[in-house]
Design goal:
A hairpin with a 7-residue loop joins strand 3 and strand 4 (81-86). The strands form three sheets. A ten-stranded mixed beta sheet has the order 3-4-5-6-9-10-11-12-13-14, covered by helices on one side. Helices cover 33% and strands 19% of the residues. The model is unreliable at 327-333 and 342-346 (pLDDT under 50). It has ten helices and 14 strands. It folds into two domains: 5-63, Orthogonal Bundle (DNA polymerase, domain 1); 68-330, Aldolase class I (TIM Barrel). With 346 residues, it is α/β, with parallel strands linked by helices.
Length: 346
């Protein structure tokens, strides 16, 4: 198994190269690519336009994905479903299916654990175990689509891990997911979220990617942000915002500032005034996210306080939304993924 080439995560050109490597014509690689990413098959014997001898050869030399479903948590009243995947090295990751009237979104992971240690995030408690490969990232989407037998319209890289810490694999995965010859999920329907790795934001802008960008801000004040998000000690809030402004100007796209509201900490009028000043300095959207409990010492502000904070921001020359995360009743919401099987009684 270890010596077999995993075809999930290979680009069209890489599939063609693989076909030639095993002594086949290049067009066989194009057929493989279509079966994996368009027809979403997981079995070589289903590839009916391939000769039987080639299918046998593929079974000996290759595999299609490697994620094992360890658990499916469908308790949430919102309709969100959390999938726990077991990796070949016995690590675990989670992905979340989030249904809505007009779209079906998957929140996917990019790392096993995370090294950034954001104080309000359950994933942070795991520390970083390792990066996910491109195949492991894409296979979350393929596996869930096969299980659910439905198309996915939106992808958010907001699961376990810091996407820009695994930059190359994340960008390659997003490119595969958006390929018109494959899964064809629109690039503007793919959001990559970062806690603020400033040099990667600049690189992302320079490379001209069409995927949307979200930045986890959570406090406009450097001292507080560095306490909540230790990454701010390396890239302070001014460095991050400068990189975001560069991205907005270079790409001519509007980034989203994500702001997790923590009761009594970052939800005051002073915070709203400072955030409003930031927003006035650049084109952006603001997404307020009431905190989702992770078993630590933080708490979620009440609906009245959330609404008050939003009112303090007005009038705002930017898009403003409040995202009450779906799936918080089954630990499937923003900040709650920890790669662990939860025991419950059905």
């Amino acid at each position: 198994m270890k010596n077999k080439t995993n075809l999930v995560g290979l680009t069209l050109a890489e599939c063609e190269a693989f076909a030639e490597k095993i002594g086949e014509k290049k067009y066989r690689g194009r057929q493989l690519y279509k079966w994996i990413y368009v027809k979403k098959t997981a079995f070589f014997d289903e590839m009916t336009d391939l000769p039987a001898l080639l299918r046998d050869k593929l079974a000996e030399t290759a595999r299609i994905g490697f994620l094992e479903i360890a658990d499916v948590d469908d308790r949430s009243l919102s309709g969100s479903v959390k999938y726990l995947f077991k990796l070949p090295d016995n690590f675990f990751i989670e992905s979340v299916y989030i249904p809505d009237v007009s779209r079906k979104t998957l929140c996917i992971s990019s790392q096993v654990g995370c090294a950034l240690n954001c104080r309000f995030c359950a994933t942070a408690k795991l520390g970083l175990k390792r990066h996910l490969s491109t195949g492991e990232i894409v296979d979350q989407v393929l596996t869930i689509m096969r299980m659910r037998d439905e198309e996915i319209s939106n992808i958010v890289f907001m699961g376990m891990g810091e996407p820009f810490a695994n930059y190359e694999n994340v960008i390659k995965a997003a490119t595969l997911l958006s390929d018109d010859n494959g899964l064809a999920i629109g690039a503007r329907r793919i959001v990559i979220s970062t806690a603020g790795i400033a040099d990667k934001i600049i690189r992302y802008a320079d490379e001209g990617h069409k995927f949307r960008l979200a930045i986890s801000l959570n406090s406009p004040f450097q001292e507080q942000r560095s306490q909540l998000m230790p990454i701010s000690r390396r890239w302070d809030v001014n460095n991050v915002l400068a990189a975001v402004k560069y991205y907005a100007k270079k790409s001519r796209k509007i980034p989203t500032l994500e702001y997790v509201l923590l009761d009594g900490l970052n939800d005051t009028k002073e915070h709203a005034t400072a955030l409003k000043k930031i927003v006035k300095s650049m084109p952006c959207k603001v997404n307020l996210i009431p905190y989702n409990p992770t078993g630590d010492n933080f708490s979620r502000p009440g609906a009245a306080q959330v609404n008050q904070f939003a009112q303090w921001l007005l009038p705002l020359n930017a898009g403003l939304s409040v995202r009450w995360s779906k799936g918080d009743d089954s630990n499937a919401a923003c900040g709650q993924l920890a790669g662990k099987k939860q025991e419950w009684v059905r």
